[in-house]
Amino acid sequence: xxxxxxxxxxxxxxxxxxxxxxxxxxxxxxxxxxxxxxxxxxxxxxxxxxxxxxxxxxxxxxxxxxxxxxxxxxxxxxxxxxxxxxx
Length: 87
Prior knowledge:
This protein has a two-stranded parallel ribbon. Helices cover 56% and strands 11% of the residues. The longest helix has 20 residues, at 2-21. The chain is globular, with a radius of gyration of 14 Å. The model has no long low-confidence stretch (mean pLDDT 77). By secondary structure, the chain is mainly alpha-helical. It has one domain (2-86).
């Protein structure tokens, strides 16, 4: 039962964060250790999944540097890839 409670708390936190991010204009970089974000959940929070650029860092220690890299470069490879996918 404790495992399902933790999963419920994680899901609630994700929806809460997504609802805040929905107010921000432009693309959203979502950096994780691995891809465990359920995109339809974002839509429940009015954050369209097409606005989200997922970054899989592979390890917890890589998440912060990945976020910094996304924020540092206006023309980052992930942003160019997202724009190419949209067109």
